[in-house]
Amino acid sequence: MNSSSYQNLIQRSEEIALYSSTSALLGWDQETGIPKKGLNYRAEQCAFLGGKAHQLFTDPLVGDWISSSEDEGSFTDSTELANLREWRWSYDRAVKLSTEFIEEAERVRSHAMSAWAESRKKNDFKIFSPHLEKIIKINQRKAESYGYSDHPYDALLEGYERGSRTEMINELFDGLKPALREIGEAAARKSANSSSQVIKGDFPINAQEKFNQEIAKSFGFDFDAGRIDAAVHPFCSGIAPGDTRLTTRYDANDFSSSLYGVLHEVGHGLYEQGLPVEKFATPSGKAVSLGIHESQSRLWENHVGRAPSFWKFWYPRAVHFFPSLQEITQEEIISSTLRSEPSFIRVEADEATYDLHIILRFEIEKDLISGDLKVAELPECWNAKFMEFFGLRVENDANGCLQDIHWSMGALGYFPTYTIGNLGAAQLYAKAIEDDPEISNQLNGGEYSKLLDWLRNKIHSKGSVLLPDDLIKDATGESLSESYHLKHLQSRYL
Question: Does 185 share its domain with 326?
Fold first, then answer.
């Protein structure tokens, strides 16, 4: 169907994409290399672009074009129907926020991110806390504007994972928590009784960069359409077709920190590079949810990158880049990779304990949004919950409530998608192996094309044509289930 209203929507979406992709580029630059004195003006640049994009989309003409297209009722193509569905959903939310609010939110976000980086570096929560106060108020106002039936957190969660509700996540996490604790405790006991060692040594950063890039390329990441840089917190930015940027952080004494950061972000990057380029500016060409996005990152990071077969293949190349590893056997590296013990840092946590980090953050941020928890109380609350969940005393806020970038970005509602992603990763990986047993043989030989092809066909190429649960059903034959993830953890760690 090619009605004039629908074509007007396409044209307007293409114009908005120029603003949003430019804003994404500025955001990447802010995290990787902006001079400190450029931060104030950068906040104004981001506010301007965000405001302009919002104005273009909330133009009453856009609402008229959507209604006119819906009234025609003659659309049958799945892509067109998906575009209309997403335009309607996004428009109905967007018109509830003023341009002034969007500009204010962008300014607050830009300043908060730089303050967070300084706060974390100096281990001083007081630097970040006034900015977090503003972030929380912005999100509370947003939730009230969007509206909700049960909990203000619902309105924020919906923006990251369509169809999710606070009550649903509560029930899922309450059901998972006992099993996760049991698995985590058993895995830690097993690791404590084994001879596995933590791999520490002298690993030059330039060698880490080369090793990471070689593995990322073997997974299928296209470096003619992407790059890897350093940042305070690893992230992936799908800026535009042909421009997907990853970041990681480096520790000269631990090469695995940057490596697994890269493997995680490569999973995101492969998804971005696999989306239909010709649909980039329209809703159907975008990733459908953060839960699906995290299923891709967690699949490549954990199901591929932490499997014994990974190190059986890559050990000789690791020794090539890091000669000191000659003193450590392949088996010891595998044992170290599968070592489980409670740890402070989420992005460095093992699979057996990772989801508890997510549940902790979910419980905290929904209370921040409801007002049951004040920002000033956050460090104390975090530390108490961490002791409850992990039995560890948090000695400083840099290893505690300051460790993640998400709250400085204003991304409250994001964290639950990591565990949703873990569930999806396990389910998709199991189905891929079932559909094509040759995938396992390829992985043993350091070849990843068949797995990537399966994900391209089942997930990446679909964009947002299907909503998250429908996409999982279409790919695996059933709704999202926690059973595959728990089975995976039990098999790998117990």
Answer: yes
